[in-house]
Amino acid sequence: MPKEKESNSSQQQRTRQQQRPATTAEPYPWRRVVFGCLVVVLCWSIGIYRQNKDAADAKAKQLQDWAFSKLWSHMSAQNAERVDIYRKPLWAQVQGNVFEIGAGHGEPLMLLPRGKNGLTKDGTGVRGITQYIAAEPNSFLHERLAENAAAAGFAVQYDANTSPNGAEFNAASAASKLPVLTIVNGTLDDAPAVIPKYIRDHAPYDYAIGSMVMCSVDNVQANLQAIQDLLVPGGKFIFIEHVRHTDEADSTVRAEYKAGSMDVSMWRRAQEMLTSVWRLFTGNCHLDRDTGKLIREMKGWSSVEMQTHRGTSGVLDKLTPLVFGIATKAA
Q1: What secondary structure does DSSP assign to 222-275, as a single string?
Q2: Mean model confidence pLDDT for the chain
Q3: Cβ atoms < 10 Å from Cβ of 10
Q4: Cα 242 to Cα 38: distance, rounded to the nearest angstrom
């Protein structure tokens, strides 16, 4: 009897052991380890960036400028085809001492007043311009800018303060009798506190020109104020810019646009939504700036003559309506 009880007890114990869930080793926390490593790398990267912020920002800016120069090489011809119909009659008025902000590749230089000139290969060249200062902060655009300036009939030189590597180039153009176009590697973004010396020293200007540039500057108001300050009394600012869509009833819209032919408010919202991404790949270009309104409402002009082209022929045309005209500084 005792043996039978002992046997039953042993059997019950074995049964309980079999029913008891087997203990397993806790898995290694790989996810936590990987996450911790990523946090360490991120913190280390931020620390390195802070220690070398200026150099890192300069490298990033250089890469952005290079990428935009490649993009603009493919887009500039298409842009000129769309814009020159409005730009040509404006550029034909330019004369005297001229300053251009954001000269880019310089394609519009061929739209300046031209006449016979025995000093150029084709016997023609710019007429009525005594000096031309072309400010362009993207050095990757300078080579084509110089080529287009020479083709337009200018003797080209570089500002030694902002482009020290242009000294050899300058020596070749110093003896020329052609009007001089000087490339300045700079902007007006830090005006009025800082304006590149060459631009300041050769002011005041009879004409200032801006073509598709206010979309990408850091501070539109500062740039516009600096331009106005650099002009002689009665001097003219000639501009053409793509802007944020204005209201349907905007009186400056050209008659070629038929009211109601597009949903202006929808395209305005599209501009606002796309700008944050668009600007990363297009040299800081903003789709949603009210540049025309800023020029028109700015004090210090005696008159502002402005028109708006509201295109409907394609997506790019609808995303980038144009304003163009002339603002004259009060005497």
Answers
A1: HHHHHHHHHEEEEEEEEEEEE-----TT-TTB-TTSPTTSS-HHHHHHHHHHHH
A2: 84
A3: 10
A4: 43
